[in-house]
Design a protein that fits this description.
By secondary structure, the chain is α+β, with helices and mostly antiparallel strands. It is built from 5 helices and 8 strands. The structure holds iron/sulfur cluster.
Length: 159
């Protein structure tokens, strides 16, 4: 849908982690939402990926717990591809944050690699096709202001 988004976290780190794609609450605000035309099935009436209870948490129905992979990786929603970076529609505008819950982000928070990736993300969000995607998919945009303590502000997307 939005083309290939370069990933910041190497798959070797993701595959060893037990964080993503599992949520503490069935109605967790961190569940990804699918945009228009992203997923034909597997989402609830609000567009969130459906989850199933699993070992004390709620796991995305597309998550394969045997090898920590996503069964629809190539077609996964934009929000999944963007993570551990998130968009937050706040009173100040459309802002981009890193989610400090991600152990790799914690390790790399002060690294030049993160700064380079932020530069890449700024260019990415300036692309006309991404602008258009965000305009069409306003329903994806949450306000994560109440989660500031677990977010690192990166930049505001100029509109
Ligand atoms: S769609 Fe894939 S990447 Fe997204 S939450 Fe589900 S399993 Fe994880």
């Amino acid at each position: 849908m939005t083309g290939q988004l370069k990933q910041f976290v190497p798959s070797s780190a993701c595959l060893k982690c037990d964080g993503c794609c599992r949520f503490r609450l069935s109605d967790s605000p961190w569940r990804p939402k699918a945009g228009e035309q992203e997923l034909q099935e597997g989402t609830d009436s609000q567009g969130y990926v459906k989850t199933i209870p699993q070992a004390g948490h709620h796991q995305c129905i597309f998550f394969n717990k045997t090898d920590n992979t996503c069964e629809i990786y190539v077609q996964r929603p934009f929000e999944c591809a963007l993570y551990p970076f998130v968009l937050s529609q706040t009173a100040k505008g459309l802002e981009v944050y890193a989610h400090l819950a991600c152990p790799y982000i914690q390790d790399q928070e002060q690294s030049p690699q993160l700064q380079e990736y932020v530069t890449y993300l700024k260019e990415f969000f300036g692309l006309p096709r991404i602008r258009s995607f965000l305009e069409i998919n306003g329903s994806l945009l949450h306000d994560y202001t109440s989660f500031q303590q677990e977010l690192k502000f990166l930049f505001t997307i100029e509109v």
